[in-house]
Amino acid sequence: MKTIIILGLMSSLLLSSCAAPRGGMGGGGHGGGGNADGLILLGAGVVIGSIIATLPKKHAPAGPDQYYSNGVFYRNSPNGYEVIAAPIGVRVNQIPTNHRVVRYEHRIYYNARGSWYIYDHHLQQYQVVAPPERMNPR
Predict the structure, then answer these.
(1) 24, 26, 58, 70: most buried by Cβ count inside 10 Å?
(2) What is the pTM of this model?
(3) Are residues 26 and 78 in the same domain?
(4) Are residue 30 and residue 80 in the same domain, yes or no?
(5) Could you report the per-residue pLDDT of 87-103, keeping only the tens digit for each?
(6) Which phi and psi angles does 45 have, rounded to 5°?
């Protein structure tokens, strides 16, 4: 019985260590909410600093060696593709459908997976911006 309990605990520890992001505490920036460990979560189990082997099938370029897919930004890294905070100024064609609309000082902002966007009607794209001042406590 003790052997089964010990094996169960070791399996749990092994699995939890696999879920830890590589590269420390994450990329900083203006990612989504955090947890008790200070990791920045973007939703659906995505953590800034995580490494994936291949990009999602539906992805688009988002800058030099950077990619975007459904509200998550990635960059090339030696071990695969690292999840990064949304780079301010980058433009994307779509944001996740479960975004939140925030009106602040006569401007409409969109918040999706912890990133903030404004919509450029002329270019018909969303641009990553810093959070509105009231959403960015000092």
Answers:
(1) 26
(2) 0.67
(3) yes
(4) yes
(5) 999 999 999 999 999 99
(6) 80, 10
